[in-house]
TrEMBL record:
This is non-specific serine/threonine protein kinase. The chain crosses the membrane at residues 241-263. The lineage of its organism: Bacteria, Bacillati, Actinomycetota, Actinomycetes, Kitasatosporales. SUPFAM superfamilies: Protein kinase-like (PK-like). It comes from Streptomyces silvae. Keywords: ATP-binding, Kinase, Membrane, Nucleotide-binding, Transferase, Transmembrane, Transmembrane helix.
């Protein structure tokens, strides 16, 4: 942790903020850690990003102000350093896993659980993970704290010793083995002869018949494998043809059976739908449905019902009680049923520039004037979205944001202005106006290089009265 803090101290002295410090950006070497990957690091006093359109940080290691879209300073790297050190100690992120929206919500609105860390480390981690950037420790204080805890070991250079704890003793490479001297076979010793060879023996050796060389031809099968006759080969071909035909026929029969079963199931579903519609029209037990539209009170059916009710008072009271109980049960069911989510309305390729605006209340969100509540401007570097009564939250990481996710992040949102310096094609922004309408704007095209000609184009989804 002290080695990474020294690296942060060096880059902060040059006016650079890393913005994406995480375990994969810290390499362990024999003499200490190395901090890498400055792909999205801006100057500490600058406003432009070195990677236009890149994701600003990794959600699990973001600082609260970075997740909320506020100004990012060197204190954000200290927060990420504590997150990285906690990950090295616990083997998992300190704020848990899950979708990026849920992790960012916990980082912004909850305190970290430090009970899993050793007691001696908790005060330092509590300072580094403070919600306010001004309350966090500086890299110099982290280095001094580690030097005080290590004592004499800090000056002895414990990096190589710690490295050997992971890698073990240094491997000794043996000297190369010399190439062996090739051994040549000794020539056979000729048998001793008692006298000179006879002329007849030499002549017989010279005139002996040469070994016949086989004529070139096709390779012969091995001796252990019997050759097939012409009749056996024809029988094998017939068996292969019969097996292939049987397989094709079986496959065709299987397809026909599946199609027949599907058609039969569809017919049964049609019959069930027709039977259900006739039953709902006639009512239970074949009785006509009550009070058809247009029937006048006091008609003949009403008179006969009144007569039968008069002849049987107890039956009338029972039916009246049953009707009242049924009405109460129906009303209770209506009250208990939760309201359904509103139907999403899609508006593709909605254009936004300095001359028009956006509204979540009307049937057509795009307004040709600046009277809509959501307006696009370039008063700051990278441009921004402003809303008089509309709040914004950008979704970091992942795509396909749902209504429930927008509800979650907008529940405590308070920012009526959102910077677009880190937004790019594919960025998703949730918004909510004061009437409870929720919108999701997915940027397809962003052009902010020339502020006078800057514009946005994206797909808008609106859920009316969705805030509940």
């Amino acid at each position: 942790m002290a080695g990474v803090a020294e690296a942060l101290k060096a880059i902060h002295a040059e006016g650079i903020v890393h913005r994406d410090l995480k375990p994969s950006n810290v390499l362990l070497a024999a003499d200490g850690p190395r901090v890498i990957d400055f792909g999205i690091a801006p100057a500490a006093d600058g406003t432009a990003y070195t990677a236009t359109g890149g994701t600003i940080g990794t959600p699990s290691f973001m600082a609260p102000e970075q997740a909320a879209g506020d100004e990012v300073t060197a204190a954000a790297d200290v927060f990420a350093l504590a997150q990285t050190a906690a990950y090295a100690a616990l083997g998992k992120p300190l704020y848990g896993d899950g979708p990026a929206v849920n992790v960012l919500y916990r980082i912004v609105h909850s305190e970290p659980d430090l009970s899993l860390l050793p007691q001696a480390l908790r005060p330092l981690f509590a300072r580094c993970l403070a919600a306010g950037p001004a309350e966090r420790a500086t890299p110099e204080e982290i280095v001094e704290w580690c030097r005080h805890r290590l004592g004499a070991e800090a000056e002895a250079g414990g990096g190589p010793a710690v490295w050997r704890e992971f890698t073990g003793p240094e491997t000794v490479v043996p000297a190369p083995v010399p190439e062996p001297t090739p051994a040549y076979p000794q020539p056979p010793v000729p048998a001793a002869v008692s006298g000179p060879p006879s002329l007849s023996a030499s002549t017989s050796q010279l005139t002996s018949a040469p070994v016949p060389v086989p004529a070139p031809g096709f390779p012969q099968p091995p001796a252990g494998r019997p050759q097939l006759t012409q009749e056996q080969r024809r029988g094998r071909r017939r068996r292969t043809a019969l097996i292939t035909a049987a397989g094709v026929t079986g496959g065709a029969l299987l397809v026909v059976a599946l199609a027949w079963s599907l058609m039969d199931a569809m017919d049964r579903l049609d019959d069930r739908d027709k039977t259900g519609s006739r039953t709902s029209a006639t009512g239970p037990a074949g009785q006509p449905s009550a009070s058809a539209p247009g029937s006048a009170p006091g008609s003949s059916s009403g008179s006969s019902s009144g007569a039968s009710d008069a002849s049987d008072p107890s039956g009338a009271s029972d039916s009246a009680g049953s009707s009242a109980a049924g009405a109460r049960d129906g009303a209770a069911e209506d009250v208990a049923a939760p309201p359904a989510d509103p139907r999403p309305e899609g508006f593709p390729l909605v254009w936004m520039d300095a001359k028009n605006s956006l509204s979540l209340t009307g049937t057509e969100p795009s307004q040709e004037n600046r009277k809509g509540d959501v307006r696009f401007g370039c008063e700051s570097a990278g441009c921004e979205l402003k809303g008089g009564h509309t709040v914004f939250v950008q979704i970091f990481g992942g795509h396909g944001t749902t209504l429930d996710e927008c509800r979650l992040v907008l529940d405590s949102a308070t920012k009526h202005e959102w910077p677009l310096a880190g937004a790019a094609a594919g960025t998703e922004i949730c918004m909510k106006d004061d009437k409870g309408n929720i919108g999701l704007y997915v940027i397809q095209t962003k052009s902010t290089a020339l502020p006078d000609l800057a514009f946005l184009q994206g797909d808008l989804t609106v859920w009316r009265n969705a805030d509940r």
